Amino acid sequence: MTAQNSATLPTTIAVKNPVRRGTALALLGVIAFSLTFPATAWGLESFGPWSLVALRSVLAAAIAGAFLSARRVPLPARAHWAGLAVVAAGVVVGFPMLTTLALTTSTTSHAAVVVGLLPLTTAALSAVRTGARPSRAFWAAALAGAAVVIAFVVSDGTLAQGGGLSAGDAYLFGALLVCAAGYTEGGRLARMLPGWQVIGWALVLCLPLSLAGSVAGLAYEPVHLTGHGLAGLIWAAAGSTFLGLYAWYRGMAEIGAPRASQLQLAQPLLTLVWSVALLGEHLSPAAPAAACGVLVCIAVTQRVK
Fold first, then answer.
1. What is the Cα–Cα distance from 20 to 13, expressed in whole angstroms?
2. What distance in Å separates the CA atoms of residue 267 and residue 40, rounded to the nearest whole number?
3. Is 127 exposed, middle or buried (0-12, 13-18, 19+ CB in 10 A)?
4. How large is the angle between the packed helices 108-130 and 36-43, nearest 10 degrees?
5. Which pTM does this prediction carry?
6. What pLDDT, in 10s, does the model give residues 64-98?
7. What's the CA gap between 278 and 159, in Å, rounded?
8. pLDDT tens digit string along 30-73?
């Protein structure tokens, strides 16, 4: 391991087996991501969608900049900037903006449809971008997991609750594509840079745009500060955007994008649990059965090559 790759955050999990360590880190990222939609719903209580996304990015960039400055990290090589721009466009700007706009008209449980398809999309884009060739057993398990999640969400009535196909669905499917691209490119870069530096530099790269968006959003959108709104903003910035993506990219670098992506099959079900606990949304009795089916598919994708 190079000196640069050893420069990680002090919270690194002390697991000797790199596969187990990578899996644990990716799972931590999934748990952080599963809170993103409820946190965003809370944030929308205080801020407009444009203001919320811009402020989220500014706060996350401030955290990232503090770490980069404290550790005196040099600028990335010129060859990495194009990849960092893809990460920034996908996971710093595109996915937060599109999902936040979707959540102005959809419930968090409806938005979980995106996460149900994201693992399969990420694995497919990764295979195209990096040349990875998972086995047929892997793809069969991945397709089965996506089918279980989609079947659960549809049978649970969340599509109907979200109002059927609408402009919100267009935002969600657009978010699916840009996020998968950002995950794939970030996972590739995390093999050359520490994961926290990948998301850190992507956030710093977006800072001028985020600052301009914050000023414009706060000038034109009403602000009604509440405890929930501030908590949602802080978690979306610190938890989902910086710490969650740090753990995710580091784990993805250790176990590969296809295997890491399939851990996200658990994310929609976790999001539904948080939606019940934090937002008071209804959880179907079918959730335990869907959870078991998803866990079986995850176990298969982690064992096959």
1. 10
2. 15
3. middle
4. 130
5. 0.79
6. 999 999 999 999 999 999 999 999 999 999 999 99
7. 20
8. 999 999 999 999 999 999 999 999 999 999 999 999 999 999 99
